[in-house]
Amino acid sequence: MIKRRIPSGRGAMEQPNNTDDGETRLTPQFWLAVALTGIATGLFGDLLMWLLAEVERAGFHYHAGYFEHAVDAVSSSRRIVVLLIGGVIGAVSWYLIRRYLSHERSDIDDAIWNGDGELSLRRSLLTSVTSEVVIGLGASIGREAAPKLMGGASGSMISHWFDLSPAQKRLLVACGGGAGLACVYNVPLGGAIFTAEVLYGSFALPVVMPALVTSLIATMVAWLYLPTSATYADIPSYRFSGSLMVWSLLAGVVIGLLAVCYVRLIGWASHFRAKGAHILWIMPLAFGVLGVIGIWCPHLFGNGKDMAHDAFLGIGGIGMLFALFALKPIVTAMMLGSGAAGGVFTPFLATGALFGACFGAMWIHVWPGSPVGAFALVGAAAMIGASMQAPLAGLVLVLELTHSAFSLAIPMMAATAIATFLVRQIDGYSIYSARLPRRDDHAALATPEGT
Fold it and tell me: Quick one: pLDDT band at residue 441, thresholds 50, 70, 90?
């Protein structure tokens, strides 16, 4: 608005992040679209989480507290039957969606990175509803993919209302996707950074501002139904120690190597997932196998939130922590390989937390100085930051998810930086890029995460 420069004559846009808007002009119409996308994303987040809660109640009589306790309270036969029902529902639903809506797009990552941001609201909604239903019935996948997808689909739809340019649409879809993650986990800052670092790949001011606003609005709207407290409540404020710092440097190396293997596993499972009519028998079989495993290990049902919470609190013996750490990525890959669609954010977060708790519990016998939960927080941040190839988002998300761990910022940063560096040097894939479909595949419209 002010045309005259300051006395030095230097330009305002010389600050690298404060660039010109370029093709993504932040017009009044765009800002209105941002506000509407935030509102729609928050409402969809509430709807999907309400659906998830209702399905959990129907399947396992779950009302509050730990989901795994509700699973443990029902009979072994009910666990298997409920998982089989989830497998049948998912198989039939995704078979029909992929067969009859194959011409419609529902892969938010591919739409932003390699397209114009166009997403089908119909296919995205059907996919998201199916995903939350099977998760509520015990599938070992993350719940965040559905609200992330619906946030992006809302942005895509609203962009047509205001006749936005393809560049503006891509930015709006990215903002909606990050806001979907933000609103269901109550992490508005983490959601905005996820938008900039992962989905859009830029921290320029014209990206960060709408990302912040969309996540802020979506999170506040989601408070109509979802709680305003931390996702992982009651986590103590652990103190920094030399023991934890040294362990973090070593753990960063190991977690980086593990993340490469886990991301490759997810990429392999996504590419070779059951397709066509094969899904009708492979998915119920895979879900049934998980149901049988759940007879002895009900912790593996759901996205892994309860496992991570226990690890953050330092609960569990070394043997159980190691078993869950080893099994969670495998059963999640099995779900994806069967043709199920869902997120892997919380499963990877839980895997990192379990690694930290398990090997931290061993470490303190050599060098005492920190409680087990502190190691779990470091492990979670390093694993999710490295596997997303987004260290800032990983760190901020763990801090916001727990409303704690600020005193552990230095060891968390060290482990996350080392792990992310190793993943980038060895491989470079993330849990998102590893799941992209083949470019020459007719099923490119059918996504690993969005169908």
Answer: low
